[in-house]
From TrEMBL:
Enzyme class: transferase
UniProt GO molecular function: glycosyltransferase activity
The organism's taxonomic lineage, starting at the top: Bacteria, Pseudomonadati, Pseudomonadota, Alphaproteobacteria, Rhodobacterales
Annotated EC: 2.4.-.-
Gene source species: Pseudodonghicola flavimaris
Record keywords, A-Z: Glycosyltransferase, Transferase
Domain Glycosyl transferase family: 201-322
InterPro entries documented for this protein: Glyco_trans_1
Protein name: Glycosyltransferase
Length: 374
């Protein structure tokens, strides 16, 4: 999503600047610097060598090189307390500040942006999950997230929400702190990748399902592992795509104990084309998530014409309507029945036809809404 914003705003008629927090302070990129960094993020140019400052302060080699290039192409740099002065010196008066990543929403940054000459501050909020489901978070995350929302309420001229459901849930939290800022709902664009080659070792002739997303407690991987254990040796394949997250030691231990020749496989680090190929040839996407602010995987699967079985979540219904099969996350019988039906093809044709009618939201529509008000 942040990359979509970078690509789109780079082609607008107004100049684009970027504010980046690094280990050693704040970096401001001008339009030329933004273009250089964007080319490296896209892979069109390689990242440069780590400079001395990065070698002294960072252990991660990739971050060393990225922060070094940020300094090389910087229009200006400063310590956080000098941010307002730096922005006032280098940016046009009345600039618009867009924050779309839940990061840098500190009181210091937001005040400095305003004092530095911002005419308008817009923030995109993805969900209220840390406050509604603190049991799925690392210690302290819920409190930290509440602070972010409080600062957004106090400083933002516009809050952008990815779904009406997210807006309702976040504003239910915000209203306890005072007046609500103006808001806009703009669905995120869905751009399914062009399918490439299947990952090595996948037998396309054997029925299999895909689950896609970070392996964290709210995503429901534990339910799927239980179902596959219950189905036993005759179970179809289950391909688990996504990086390992947090607070999920029991699931990680079960994944580590999977037999190499079993039906369940964990495949991290796949590129978009490989994931699209896996989805396109699968019996369907399984999405037993317990909470979502938007839910891109079901939308990407539906855009490819792939059957979707999902927990019954308002954000998914908001965009996909009646295309998926919706199930209670806790009803194992329903999940087993849906998996069996799709494996044997009883529901595949009906769901695929429904999916063919899905017109996914576009980034063009998203930006037409957002930029009109920012």
């Amino acid at each position: 999503m942040e990359l979509a914003y970078l690509r789109h705003l780079s082609h607008e008629s107004v100049p684009l600047f970027a504010l980046v927090r690094t280990t050693l302070g704040c970096v401001l990129l001008g339009p030329d610097g933004v273009a250089e960094i964007a080319a490296r993020i896209d892979g069109r140019l390689p990242w440069g060598r780590a400079d001395l400052l990065s070698r002294l302060t960072r252990r991660d080699g990739a971050v060393r090189r990225a922060e070094s290039d940020l300094r090389r192409f910087a229009l200006a740099r400063c310590r956080p307390k000098r941010l307002a002065a730096m922005l006032a010196r280098h940016l046009p008066e009345g600039f618009a500040y867009l924050n779309v990543g839940h990061s840098n929403l500190t009181a210091l940054t937001l005040r400095a942006v305003r004092q530095g000459g911002a005419g308008r501050i817009a923030v995109l909020i993805h969900d209220a999950i840390p406050l509604e489901f603190p049991q799925y978070q690392r210690p302290g995350v819920a409190e930290e997230f509440a602070g972010r929302l409080q600062r957004v309420r106090a400083h933002a001229d516009l809050v952008i929400y990815n779904s009406a459901d997210t807006r309702a849930r976040v504003e239910a939290q915000m209203q306890a702190w005072g007046l609500l800022p103006p808001a806009l709902v703009a669905h995120l664009g869905v751009e399914p990748a062009v399918p490439g080659a299947l990952p090595t070792g996948i037998d396309a002739e054997r029925p299999y399902f895909v689950v896609l997303g970070t392996i964290e407690p709210r995503k429901g991987h534990d339910l799927l592992l239980d179902l596959w254990e219950e189905m036993g040796p005759q179970a179809p394949g289950l391909i688990i795509c996504g990086a390992r997250g947090w607070n999920n030691a029991a699931v990680f231990a079960r994944l580590d104990a999977l037999p190499a020749d079993g039906p369940v496989r964990e495949m991290a680090g796949l590129d978009d084309a490989q994931i699209a190929a896996l989805l396109q040839r699968s019996c369907g996407l399984l999405f037993p998530s317990r909470a979502e602010g938007y839910g891109l995987p079901p939308m990407e699967a539906a855009a490819l014409g792939v059957p979707v079985v999902s927990s019954d979540l308002p954000a998914i219904r908001e965009v996909l309507g009646n295309i998926p099969v919706y199930l209670k996350e806790s009803d194992r019988y329903q999940w087993l029945s849906a998996i069996e039906s799709l494996k044997t093809g009883h529901k595949t044709q009906q769901l695929t036809v429904s999916g063919a009618d899905f017109i996914p939201p576009t980034w063009e529509d998203h930006f037409n809404l957002v930029l009109r008000l920012t």
